[in-house]
Amino acid sequence: MPKKHLTTKRYIHGHDWRGNNAAFTCPVCRKVFIVSQFFDKNGRKCPECKKSTAYCTGGPGKGQAFIEWE
What domain of life (predicted)? Predict the structure, then answer.
């Protein structure tokens, strides 16, 4: 399964990470959606196509945020 990690060192167009929340653009259907560390503890599937899942744990300084897809 392909995976794309967000980092604080480089900006990725269509993605953003602020606090314990991250915004991702689904690589399959291109829908933008938000994932939260507090509300989406097991990740969040793309609400449009359900073919990608995004995860966010912690903030940009000490956490990780990534999206994976089929």
Answer: Bacteria
